[in-house]
Design goal:
The protein is an alpha+beta fold and about 250 residues long. The chain contains 9 helices and 8 strands. It has a 4-stranded antiparallel β-sheet. The protein has a 4-stranded antiparallel β-sheet with strand order 5-6-4-7, sandwiched between helices. Strand 1 and strand 2 (about 95-100) form a beta hairpin.
Length: about 250
């Protein structure tokens, strides 16, 4: 399996753990809110909202909850959310790229800075990690009745960089600029992905011993537990041993 697909597959498995903590629901509600504020409540004319609703279904959010989220976001008095990012380094020189959606940027940056300080990390300037991460489109598609070879060939022909089947799910990787066209291709095939998003995939990774790696993962989880944080990307090498620890 290629490096970026391994990373994305682990991200999907970890996403299942996040869902148990209701973190996934909070994330998709924020995405729905931003999408509605940006381009209106009609998913047919709002590709970002359509994607957010698909992701909400993918984490098993009830239809009534989705409808309420869209309706609430349509209210002119609804809170205005801002998308922001933070970059820095923690244990062993591991890079962290943090994405957040917030109604109070000052609170969010204060919380992020506090966590970096708590773990002796360093909050850097925006853009300082561009050389470490590539932004890629990542789609997670349940295999269902799809025939592996046929589906992979069709998706590659449609512009995917890679497509790998593992544990009953295809992980499809595209260039960032091909994200929209791949979403359209899946719609044409009447395939609804379990999840579809732009992720920041490390170009190179850092390998730490077990103790150091587990410390990094604890730091990542601390950031993820912040209500404003929606994604944390890192360049820690995910060994099989670490994967086992993450899935306990």
């Amino acid at each position: 399996m290629s490096g970026h697909n391994k990373w994305s597959t682990i991200k999907r498995k970890k996403g299942a753990l996040d869902a148990k903590r209701s973190k996934a629901f909070s994330k998709v509600i924020k995405e729905i809110t931003v999408a509605v504020k940006e381009s209106g409540p009609d998913p047919d004319g709002n590709p970002r909202l359509r994607l957010a609703i698909a992701n909400a279904k993918g984490c098993n959010m009830p239809k009534d909850n989705i409808s309420r989220a869209v309706s609430k976001a349509s209210d002119k008095d609804a809170a205005t959310l801002t998308e922001t990012t933070y970059e820095g380094y923690v244990t062993g020189g591991v890079a962290l790229f943090i994405e957040a959606t917030t109604d109070n940027v000052q609170r969010t940056v204060s919380n992020v800075r506090s966590i970096f300080n708590k773990y002796n990390g360093n909050l850097g300037t925006n853009g300082s990690l561009n050389f470490i991460f590539d932004r890629k489109g990542i789609f997670t598609v349940p295999q269902g009745k799809l025939v592996e070879n046929d589906f992979v060939m069709e998706i590659i022909d449609a512009g995917a960089e890679d497509a790998v089947l593992e544990d009953g799910f295809f992980t499809i990787t595209t260039a960032m600029e091909d994200f929209g066209s791949m979403m359209k291709k899946l719609e044409e095939m009447k395939i609804e992905p379990e999840n579809a998003e732009l992720q920041r995939i490390p170009k190179t990774t850092i390998k730490l011993d077990k103790d150091g790696a587990q410390k990094v993962l604890r730091i990542v989880e601390t950031f993820e537990d912040d209500d404003d944080v929606t994604n944390v990307f890192h360049n820690l090498e995910l060994t099989d041993e670490l994967v086992a620890e993450m899935n306990k």
